Request: fold
Amino acid sequence: MSEIAQRLRADQVTARKAGDKDRTLVLGTVLAALKYRELDSSKPIEDADAIDLLRKQIKQRLDSVDQYRKGEREDLATKEEFEIGVLRNYLPPEADPEAIRAAARDAIAAGATDVGKLMGVLMGQFKGKADGKVINQIAREALQQG
Reply:
């Protein structure tokens, strides 16, 4: 079991004992999704898998916040934001955008001349360390400048 999954499980037990139903529910949902992914892939979950799943869960909730705000359901948007805050605690620190820019410049100098090739190089280096949207934006900027 990954280190992140172990932290999630331990924190779920702590939240359950403290009577924190909201936190218990969020952590239980993520743990269930991790277990499903583990069963689906027939291999143990690693931290990179857990990070990927957490990022997807956060992205889904961010989309929900936008929809709830458009529908004037601030109560539900606030609930989703709470869940996002809980999930972000389990993500490693984001990679510095300057490090991504430097890697993009290096990859362009090495021959990555289009977004697809550049993204392949950058995602290989920064997967799990930065949001794909941020990497894509930096890649596009670097290609325009380069």
